[in-house]
Design brief:
heterodimer, A: three-stranded antiparallel beta sheet, B: three-stranded antiparallel beta sheet
């Protein structure tokens, strides 16, 4: 993607932040009278600030970015192709590895797609367990972000706090599914196993811990003046532009777009039975993205607490044949993953595996706005903007 | 300015309160936390249950199970009956360098010959040593936990 065919930064919609904040976007050429020429700075693919093998080729004019090109594909593992040679139960173990921070949430849309084609529905208890585990993986993802974002602006303490809370949640996921990172717990027509004894009360305790540590992050990071200076009015994604680039999830909600597939999409899981709200922030800067994720972590913890209270009893598996053959057809199922909208377009020709799968992963679209977003910012802000967009390289390259 | 100092002090208050709490980290080689009983650590093989049906090897997503077997004739159970043919396992290897720990093999096994054990300390310095043969897989059987009770509201299946 080149930066030439993007709309000029001057034509921006009105948003809530101070228009002066757009000065850094307005002209990237600072040293016009002192023409020093551009410097090309290569960041990555092995760079700690890029969270993986993302390579950024940045042209600098002094300390300012003239253009930035993300170069992706260093971690391409070919999952779309691999799915064509696996059976449906085998694929869930592969797609765990797309977005490895929230692997359970990856399974849900794919299993949903297969269930749509087979016209079966998981029993209510299985739906509740799926929703609980999806929200737990959302908490595990966001809590890491809440800590890591502090690390990117130079504070190392929140990172430890984030990992501490993530560990609590991962222990919960491990106690149910057996896997910390790659649960592989969804089955077509239900879920593999029930909760172990004592899990519900343990989960309540951890959710209260998460809620308490969200307050800690509020005090420690959000209220911190250095953090605010480094993130406020930096990396602003305007509403329309974000939507046009396909930015989704918390990144888009931080730009003030009130859109959440859990509420607005077609019904999936049990979100319509819960009392919860979608958080938005009008600013669209790095700070807003942090704030929205902080609120969503709280909301997810509250949702889990609700679900633990109203979980129905009953079977975990619908009636499915022993050898799963999905009838011919096509379906696209997209869900709200922690990183954004994730979708699977599955074409089946009646075999034990799909004929073709197209994976729409959230991070790929989220980083596609980088050339526009990084234009005109200072070099240290590249790191905070990258961190606040919060992508997973496995999710970009698949 | 006042607000900024206040923000800084509340943050320091959080770190101070955390400092007073006991540490959550564990000094691993000296003390260890036991993983959950369901944790997928290593696959154990109960050799006498295996009938060399190859279901696990076929359903493995990355084909890391290697099985060889042969058939033997055994004397009939009753007088005058036909001789029985029994499948015997010659080789059962799992290459843990390839294994993705998905648990599909344990799930598809119709004769309960494979089990998950939460044991995880089997790292090796040579990658070839990660290929566990049937004797080594059989040794893991000692660490397989009993099935744990389920949470309220769970439907108890009639398990064999």
């Amino acid at each position: 993607m080149t930066t030439t065919d993007l709309p000029p930064p001057g034509e921006l919609p009105e948003i809530a932040v101070d228009p002066a904040a757009f000065r850094h976007l307005a002209d990237a050429q600072v040293n016009v009278e002192l023409d020093t020429g551009d410097m090309v700075l290569n960041i990555g693919p092995q760079h700690p600030a890029t969270h993986g093998t993302l390579r950024l080729v940045v042209r600098l004019d002094g300390e300012r970015v003239v253009s930035a090109d993300p170069i992706i594909g260093y971690m391409h593992r070919g999952y779309e192709k691999l799915t064509e040679f696996r059976t449906y139960p085998q694929i869930t173990t592969l797609i765990n590895r797309i977005d490895w921070l929230s692997s359970f949430a990856n399974e849900v849309p794919f299993i949903d797609a297969a269930e749509h084609l087979m016209a079966i529905e998981a029993p209510p208890r299985a739906q509740y367990l799926r929703t609980i585990l999806t929200e737990l993986s959302r908490i595990a993802t966001f809590v890491l972000f809440l800590g890591e974002m502090g690390l990117q602006v130079g504070a190392i303490t929140p990172a430890f706090y984030g990992f501490r809370d993530r560990e609590y949640v991962l222990n919960l996921i491990e106690a149910v599914t057996g896997g910390r990172f790659h649960p592989n717990f969804n089955r077509i027509g239900g879920i593999k196993d029930d909760l172990p004894w004592g899990w519900i009360s343990e989960c309540r305790g951890v959710m209260n811990k998460v809620l308490a540590s969200c307050d800690e992050f509020d005090d420690l990071v959000v209220g911190n003046p250095i953090f605010q200076k480094r993130t406020r009015s930096i990396g602003i994604i305007p509403q329309e532009l974000g939507a046009a680039y396909g930015v989704s999830g918390s990144n888009l909600r931080a730009s003030g777009v009130d859109w959440d597939l859990r509420r607005d999409g077609p019904k999936y899981l049990v979100y319509d039975e819960l009392d919860w709200q979608v958080w938005t922030h009008p600013d669209g800067d790095s700070f807003a993205r942090y704030w929205v994720r902080l609120q969503e972590t709280r909301e997810s913890a509250r949702m889990v607490l609700q679900m633990l209270d109203q979980m129905p009893s009953g079977p975990l598996m619908a009636k499915v044949p022993r050898i799963i053959k999905v009838p011919a057809g096509e379906v696209f199922v997209n869900t709200e993953n922690p990183l954004g909208e994730m979708g699977y377009y599955v074409i089946s020709k009646g075999a034990t595996g799909p004929f073709r799968t197209k994976i729409r992963s959230a991070s790929f679209s989220n980083v596609s706005i980088l050339p526009w977003l990084l234009r005109g910012v200072y070099v240290p802000d590249i790191v905070t903007i990258l961190a606040s967009l919060y992508f997973i390289l496995g999710d970009i390259d698949r | 300015m006042k607000r900024e100092i206040k923000g800084m002090l509340t943050g320091l208050g959080v770190t101070f309160r955390t400092m007073m709490k006991p540490a959550v980290t564990v000094q691993y080689p000296h003390e260890r936390e036991d993983p959950a009983p369901r944790a997928r650590g290593v696959i154990a093989l109960k050799e006498e249950n295996c009938t060399v049906c190859m279901l696990c090897a076929r359903s493995c997503p990355d084909w890391c199970i290697y099985i060889e077997g042969h058939k033997e004739q055994r004397p009939p159970r009753r007088e005058g009956g036909r001789p029985r043919s029994v499948s015997l396992l010659d080789r059962f290897d799992i290459d843990y360098a390839l294994c993705m720990y998905c648990g599909i093999c344990v799930e598809v096994c119709p004769f309960d010959a494979l089990f998950w054990s939460p044991e995880f300390e089997y790292s090796e310095t040579r990658i070839a040593d990660l290929l566990h043969d049937k004797f080594k897989l059989g040794e893991w059987m000692a660490s397989v936990p009993e099935p744990e009770p389920l949470e309220m509201g769970a439907e108890v299946k009639g398990k064999k």
